[in-house]
UniProtKB/TrEMBL annotation:
Pfam families with a match to the protein in the record: TetR_C_33, TetR_N
Taxonomic source organism: Cryptosporangium phraense
GO MF terms, alphabetically ordered: DNA-binding transcription factor activity; transcription cis-regulatory region binding
Database matches in InterPro entries: Homeodomain-like_sf, HTH-type_TetR-like_transc_reg, HTH_TetR, MT1864/Rv1816-like_C, Tet_transcr_reg_TetR-rel_C_sf
Protein name, UniProt field: TetR/AcrR family transcriptional regulator
Keyword Transport: no
DNA-binding region per Swiss-Prot/TrEMBL record: 32-51
Positions of the HTH tetR-type domain: 9-69
Keywords: DNA-binding, Transcription, Transcription regulation
Length: 197
């Protein structure tokens, strides 16, 4: 252990960064607080000042990921343009995140369903889902999106976008490629929301 390692500058942020890096190489099961402490050169007990256990660390990492994804999709979907433009931007932001952070995306979606999921995780997941609800509500207010329960429409859109993004990240759509998958998703989501036949 390094001299004075207990007085690490921003151990919480460094633990999260190291955990995200480890997530991409060894997966969630391969992460341990003890291993992260060793890698960062701090005492084995130091992480416990920030995370009570591994699940708390994974929850915090999921919250951080959900927040980043929500920020990216919100910025994309709130831009000017037609409904199709906004859906295209949202799909591309989500797919881009999924391709860059496949393991983090898997953790984000799985963690919120863990029995001991934190209130912060539930709030972050809700905020992330509100991006799709806002897109639907704005579109309904403008007359671009058909009438219907915004929650129901948003959950179906979210499922479609996530499904395509996850399949692209896992290489399952290689026969058609990312460009065709994205364009087709945008077309189907836009038509479905607008009620066009």
């Amino acid at each position: 252990m390094k001299e004075g390692a207990y007085h690490h500058g921003n151990l919480r942020a460094d633990l999260l960064a190291a955990a995200e890096k480890a997530l991409e190489t060894v997966g969630a099961d391969g992460i341990s607080l003890r291993g992260l402490a060793r890698d960062l050169g701090v005492s084995h007990a130091a992480p416990s000042h920030h995370f009570r256990d591994k699940q708390a660390l994974l929850d915090a990492l999921a919250v951080e990921g959900i927040t980043r994804l929500a920020d990216a999709t919100s910025a994309a979907a709130s831009g000017a343009g037609t409904l199709r433009d906004r859906v295209d931007a949202l799909v591309r932001a989500y797919v881009g995140f999924a391709l860059a952070h496949e393991e983090l995306l898997t953790l984000m979606l799985g963690s919120k369903h863990h029995p001991s999921a934190s209130a912060d995780l539930a709030a972050a997941a809700d905020r992330g889902f509100r991006v799709a609800i806002a897109l639907v509500e704005d579109g309904q207010a403008n007359g671009d999106i058909r009438a219907g329960d915004p929650y129901t429409l948003a959950i179906v859109v979210s499922a479609q976008v996530h499904g395509v993004a996850a399949m692209l990240a896992r290489g399952m759509l290689e026969p058609i490629g990312a460009d065709v998958a994205i364009a087709t998703t945008v077309e189907l989501v836009t038509r479905g929301l607008s009620g066009d036949e």
